[in-house]
Predict the structure.
Amino acid sequence: MSNLELPPLDAVLADLAEYVAIPSDSRNADPATMRRAADWIAGQLDFAAGRVEQTAGHPVVRGEWLGAPGAPTVLVYGHYDVQPTGQESEWLSPPFRLTVDHGQDGDIARGRGVSDDKGPVFLVVAMLRAAIAQRGGLPLNVKFLIEGEEEIGSPHLPEYVRQHHRELACDLVISADGAQWRPDEPSISVASKGLVAFTVTVDGARDDLHSGRYGGTVANPVHVLATILASLHRSNGSVAVAGFYDGATPPSAQRRAELDAVPFDDDLFAAQLGVPETYGEAGYSTLQRLWERPTMEVNGVTAGGRYTVIPHIARAFVSCRLVGDQDPQLVLEAVDRHIARQPTPGVRVTVEQDGGAVPAYRIDPAHPAIAAATEALSAVYPEQEVLHAVIAGTLPATTLFERVLGAKTLFFSFSTADEKLHAPNEFLRLRRVHEGMRAWDALLIKMADGPHRLQPVTQPETHPETQELAQAKQ
Amino acid sequence: MSNLELPPLDAVLADLAEYVAIPSDSRNADPATMRRAADWIAGQLDFAAGRVEQTAGHPVVRGEWLGAPGAPTVLVYGHYDVQPTGQESEWLSPPFRLTVDHGQDGDIARGRGVSDDKGPVFLVVAMLRAAIAQRGGLPLNVKFLIEGEEEIGSPHLPEYVRQHHRELACDLVISADGAQWRPDEPSISVASKGLVAFTVTVDGARDDLHSGRYGGTVANPVHVLATILASLHRSNGSVAVAGFYDGATPPSAQRRAELDAVPFDDDLFAAQLGVPETYGEAGYSTLQRLWERPTMEVNGVTAGGRYTVIPHIARAFVSCRLVGDQDPQLVLEAVDRHIARQPTPGVRVTVEQDGGAVPAYRIDPAHPAIAAATEALSAVYPEQEVLHAVIAGTLPATTLFERVLGAKTLFFSFSTADEKLHAPNEFLRLRRVHEGMRAWDALLIKMADGPHRLQPVTQPETHPETQELAQAKQ
């Protein structure tokens, strides 16, 4: 289908090595370093008037190739910032030197950011430049938004997108960030989970009390907190908060069958994590729970210590991952009501929302982008079924783009989830470079015209609530 | 009754000021400072061959006046070390300068250690020296053991006492450490609570897991820990561990009535601590629970934090205060069995003993020492009933003396529990100095002869288990 002559891998890696060499760790790098990374990728967007624009934080890289009037417009999203290296001594090669090596299933390039997200962004840019050079243009209009704060929660992205929503207008956002869930099964993510977090605080006496001299006289905040936390789940693993599941429609029989058909070895999964067995809500397989069911997890607890006191305060940090139409605010209210019903004699209990609230995101599998992406992946991986996957994490940017630009986001990354993202020895499979280029080329052609042509979206009014997305944890 | 002419308060305070000026904080002071404090109080024991003896830690002060052959022998126990000062800025006067001031209910002397335990020990020494000077001797034999590590858990006392058990042989230990429970109600402590502590560890995955990317796939150790901790108590406040109460005989109707007669304002008590109400095991008053009932308190919990993970490990530190004949080892075994019965799918749970185990201590109210002490207190506080109190904390030394020396311990301190022991602005009520001297004088006379004469004890063989007492938390 594609007659594009792809840039040789060596040339791509030589360029990518320059990009990886800039240590654009958004948590720790100085502004000049961040700017150098932004300048580098903006420079690669010479065919699209690539430029660096200021935000209240690290700058964003923008660009647009608008040479296809009347054709649809896509916004390519990605980021140029990277995670901290972690312990450098754990790296097999210097984290900011792109190093080609042999991996378990083929050659890899190792380096911080190579898979998340410099490689996946750069392969799109390199492919587009080659396509313009060879064909004189692109089949549709392409805009770019490459941010520098993804790894720190995109704190300034909402404000920037709101302020520039007309310039960023598009029919679809395509994210070069994200990841194929496994190296050997092509997949398209059709949903990501929402998030709402809260802190439960149980207050007792003014100070910690000697557990002997006051034992038996006052309620122990830890006992009350334990009772509250134990009440959140049933013994079958389901969440016991009345109303929690409102809007979380169980997966259809067809979706269950689809997931049951995916090879998933529970014992191997448990062994890799070091747990004796998998566990979760009764009535669902592990993959069904991970992709289709909401969860409530206590992320941390803190009280007293290893000394004989009755702690004066006990705290738990709890977060929920949401699916479908669960409303984060209604979930919080349900939690509030549930906890208010627990017996808590002798203490004061408060529940406070912690950070922003993000609903689940999904794109209709019938959306033309999904059909186009499925065909594009099938062209590159002809032997395999394309799986509709779910990103079990939370991606506030999808909700941001939907609310402010009115556009859905398609995840189309050629990173893979097992490539040690955020950990030492991050790597990218070399075969993904050309696979990704061919897939993106096919994708854009299919979206430009024919049965899967993108339809225009209605740009909504901007809405102040988008600001809160900035605070959402990921 | 007593014709003893007591040393003038000014003279006592002048001496005590020297003693308080030596900052013998056993946790932080250098050996030379500790030695200076030991030397000072040993010097006051000139009438008893006072001397300093080495241990593996801070030295002990020994002495004996054995001029009453055929009469009983008592061992006076106390300590010359003090607590750290805490925030010096919170002190109204320098912590190591004895400062006389007006308190809420009369004059006080302020300074670190003045109430715990330098004042209460020194008043005995000063009284005995006056008695020998005025009467030519004492009515019974008196030995001294004044240690320097009480505030850090007496780590080297068991070994020292075991090695010197013949020299320390006595018919009764009288502790100048401890405290009257209230300033206005004379009391004798007839029991102290035992202690056994354990750590519950719930292990999940090898590392903390992203709560999105792994949510719903594995058990959360915090959920399991919460379920375990919530299972330890019933909703009526009683401990739900089968066998926990074995050996903890409920107080008799008479003892209940005795405690019900003690003025105790629950609302005031709660207000002072800053809790909305008192709380504890159903069926008992607050004072009954504090003095007569065992407790199990979670002293601390730790897991994860305020970030979206499934923590890989969750821990709780738990301790029990024991009464009556509860056996610490059997309590631990009961806890083990109880926790083993809880459902804990997907995790590993371990329960480990934490530190030493100390049974409850008690002295029979019919013991002649109690009668003697009651009469001695009545002589000083003629208007008031003497209450049989309980030290709700744990005093490993009592068990040590009982096991190694075969001797019971009588608490006869003229400190008061509200004198900010261990806190900034520790103080001693000045009236307690002469009250204490008169009471000790009366006590020793009554113990020497007459209806309450002390009976000889049988010195037991030393027993290796006494070593473990050194590790017991207090």
